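Morning - zinc ion inputs below, output right after.
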Amino acid sequence: MKYLPLIAIVFSSMLFSQGNSSYWQQRADYTMQVSVDVNSYTYQGSQKIVYTNNSPDTLSRVYYHLYFNAFQPGSEMDLRLQNIEDPDGRMTIDGKSRIAQLKPDEIGYLKASSLTQDGVPLAFKPEETILTVTLATPVYPGEKTVLEMNFEGQVPVQIRRSGRNNSEGVALSMSQWYPKLAEYDFEGWHADPYIAREFHGVWGDYDVFLTLDKNYVVGGTGYLQNPDEVGHGYATGESGNKKSKAKTLTWHFKAPMVHDFMWAADPEYIHDTLEMENGPVLHFFYKNNPEILENWKNLQPKTAEAMAFYNANVGAYPYEQYSVIQGGDGGMEYGMSTLITGERSFGSLVGVMAHEMAHSWFQFVLASNESKHEWMDEGFTSFISSLCMNTIMNQNKDNPFENSYRSYYYLVNTGREQPLSTHADRYVFNTGYGISAYSKGSVFLAQLGYIIGQEALMKTLRRYYADYKFKHPTPNAILRSAEKVSGMELDWYLTDWTQTTNTIDYGITSVTDNNGKARVTMQRIGQMPMPIDVLVVLKDGSQKTYYAPLRMMRGEKENPYPSLYRTVVQDWPWAQQTYTLDLDVSVDDIDGVQIDPSGLMADINQENNSWFAE
Ligand SMILES: [Zn+2]
């Protein structure tokens, strides 16, 4: 029996908006002056944060992240690397931790040398990647306070994401490089040590002055305020700094409403720009390496296509700039930018750009707490970037998410699955984290489309973005968006899929004759409930479908196969293990019967999903 092709997913650009009156969030506005010595890879900085306490609570402490301290022998990141059974290959040599082997002039560090609150010196206590600060004066609800710090740092040899001289020779990949206030929200403080992955931050405006060797080209978060002084591909006339006799150049960037500030610099960067119609200006920074030039030129129009795709299918990108920068390792998303390695095949280069750019909507603008809800970031990003790649690279797959489903089934079969609600750092295996966050998280949305219908799914995504952008949504947010769009009750789906490792397995037990008509008997074998679509293919070649909604979802999706006649049959109550479906055709006329012809229901055993005539 042939699978029906997935119905075309219908896109429209409707936007919804809705307030949420009890919601609050903190605010941290940064001004930083940083001076970098590109020869010693060290830097000195001063930072002023205007911190606004919008919470209903009086705060007597704050916490800062000092991420670079993770890149030191004996750090928690190093210990984790040494203890985990399947360490990240980028962070090891011959299976041994690269962090453990760093010499003093190769480690990363970030140290506060002084700290004041409204001019009053403060006591502070660094514990590796977290700085605990006891405030001199408590900050009452609705009040602001000014925190000023002097700090010094050393850029580590590139191990993970940040660092110097990465494998492709990019001099400085500067992510998570400055003292960064931890987030305080309705769940309390989130001063997570940097052990492996994932970030969470406070929204605010950034005003950053970077001083470094004038031959270095800088790209990253933020709009350059002094392009004519800087040049390097930013100035219109391109005279820029070349006239200046000074050895260094100060770059002044401003970034409104961001929760992070990344930059990268290299003396050999080529810097191209592409101005999108009605859209942001795209910037590209890549090494002058003849082997990659053609790919990096061809990447530019694809980046514009991806931006347009996400704008149409998720919502409007809210910044005026996006930069694709060669640097770091693999690919990682940041404010208005991404760092990706660039020595790749064209398909891989477009793929990593499409994935990292999609993070702008989920990791950056929605900005769920990635440590707690990694699947809402990596999973949703994987979902939409799979759809995007299917379109912009003309992949035309029936199921663009097939790799995510395959990985999820693989994980279930290993018996090592942990619930999606596991903290990102607390997975026993790296592969368990990866498949859970990326693949099972992507299947969450793809399968939601099976439950509520494809059109409702895409509307849900747009409504979710419109309602929760700049608001750190929690899992309940996507649930409520889907419920409001579909009119269904869906808490059972969120709970089973994200807080348990319950699996889906439905099967056809028999197709028999019942007074001249066919009777299909089906069974729920797995613990997780699902509505059921059944396709019946007749010997004359015609097809029809039957739909048994799940009773507890209190609703029905639209016919996913409008070209086929669909019969909506009685609800299937979850506790009832066996279901009888009476057809209006005789057994002799049937060629085959199949549960879920779309393949979007993540049924872990599909052997029992179909029945064929002898
Ligand atoms: Zn990602």
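Note: The first helix runs from residue 76 to 83.

O.
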